[in-house]
Write a structure and sequence with these properties.
The protein is an alpha/beta fold. It has two domains: 8-55 and 91-275, TIM Barrel (Alpha-Beta Barrel); 283-350, Antifreeze-like/N-acetylneuraminic acid synthase C-terminal domain (Type Iii Antifreeze Protein Isoform Hplc 12). Helices cover 32% and strands 16% of the residues. The chain has helices spanning 32-45, 57-60, 83-90, 94-106, 118-126, 142-149, 164-175, 202-210, 224-231, 258-275, 287-290, 327-330, and strands at 5-7, 10-12, 19-23, 49-54, 110-115, 132-134, 155-158, 182-187, 213-218, 236-240, 295-298, 313-316. The strands form three sheets. It has an eight-stranded parallel β-sheet. A two-stranded antiparallel ribbon has the order 1-2. Helix 1 (32-45) packs parallel to helix 4 and helix 1 runs parallel beside helix 10 (258-275). The longest helix is centred in the C-terminal third of the chain and has 18 residues, at 258-275. The chain starts with a strand and ends in a 20-residue tail after the last helix.
Length: 350
């Protein structure tokens, strides 16, 4: 496994903060100015990358309106729509890619895309994208995965709907090109996805079985699943973003608005920093607290020869005296010397 993978100049791996990818998808609503506003909002929220999807209705399907080419009528978001109609609305015009990528790079983000056919790979190569994403439905298109991996650039593989055999074939296909810069994304390809269907406990298993970095392509509402994924070892989080869910759009229902994206960046970073190591014991930050642990103290002025009693010796804060567990050992003994109230009880004193 590549411990660190560089997306352009940005390192991604367990030793680095989670890499947050803002997926624009079709949330531009057919308006380039809105698309550029999404780029600006994503950068301001702190996202590390901006991702597009590169296809047209004709490169991803054909214009046929039969049951096989229509989304099931009961689908929560796109029920009854033909694939061609849906992709015609959702696609990002190819002539928009250059200004979108240019603005994202200008604002300090990595900019890349998910190509859906070989012509899209060739197009994105001309734009010198630094990485590629394999969408969940394309995980079975091994020639397409090979074309992406052969560029030698990092490849992100989303695993929605896939079984372990299909995931392994996709990863193996990428590796056969000599490309080891692979991140596999745990994913539930339902829109929106439920937390119960996310199965985040698979993240450590996928990492062990595939020997790759693991991330999360998350379609649940909110940021809770993403934060939990980081705690389980995810190094990359992808979430759909929009300016305002009330504006509509094909993916708006399960997308983050800019404020939520900012929270995602902040809280996944907090989760990553909180992981620390497997060390169990006091930390440097607890040094002051250790001074105020309980210990045995003289709580009344005593004179040499006085008997140690519960009235003149007690377990109190701060530290400095004998451990509280020693109280039964010292009770009934006598003081060797005078001691004022507030003196820590030590073996030299009794």
């Amino acid at each position: 496994m590549q411990e660190t993978i560089r997306f352009a100049s940005t390192p991604v791996g367990e030793g680095h903060p989670p890499f947050i990818v803002a997926e624009m998808s079709g949330n531009h609503n057919g308006d380039l100015d809105r698309a550029l506003d999404i780029v600006r909002a994503s950068a301001e929220a702190g996202a590390h990358a901006l991702k597009l999807q590169t296809y047209t209705a004709d490169t991803i399907t054909v214009d046929v309106d039969s049951p096989a080419f229509r989304v099931s009528s009961g689908h929560e978001l796109w029920g009854g729509r033909s694939l061609y109609e849906l992709y015609e609305e959702a696609h990002t015009p190819w002539e928009w890619h250059e200004p979108i990528f240019g603005l994202a790079r200008e604002l300090g983000m990595v900019a890349f895309s998910a190509p859906f056919d070989p012509t899209a790979v060739a197009f994105l190569e001309k734009l010198e994208v630094p990485a590629y994403k394999v969408a969940s439905s394309e995980i079975v298109d091994l020639p397409l995965i090979r074309a992406m991996a052969e560029t030698g650039k990092p490849i992100i593989i989303s695993t929605g709907m896939a079984n372990l055999s299909e995931i392994d074939r996709a990863v193996s296909t990428a590796r056969e090109t000599g490309n080891e810069d692979i991140v596999v994304l745990s994913c539930t390809a339902s829109y929106p996805a439920t937390p119960e269907g996310s199965n985040l406990r698979a993240i450590p298993q996928l990492r062990a079985l595939l020997d790759t970095q693991i991330g999360l392509s998350d379609h649940t509402l909110g940021i809770g699943a993403a934060v939990a994924a980081v705690a389980l070892g995810a190094t990359l989080i992808e979430k759909h973003v929009t300016l305002d869910r009330h504006d509509g759009g094909v993916d708006s229902e399960f997308s983050l608005d800019p404020g939520e994206l900012h929270l995602l960046v902040r809280e996944t970073n907090t989760a990553w920093r909180a992981l620390g190591t497997a060390y169990v014991g006091p930390t440097e930050g607890e040094a002051e607290g250790l001074r105020f642990r309980r210990s045995l103290y003289v709580v009344q002025d005593v004179r040499a020869g006085d008997v140690v009693t519960p009235e003149n010796v007690r377990s109190i804060r701060p530290a400095g005296g004998l451990e509280p567990a020693m109280i039964d050992v010292v009770l009934g003994r006598t003081f060797r010397s005078d001691a004022p109230k507030g003196t820590p009880l030590t073996w030299n004193l009794v």
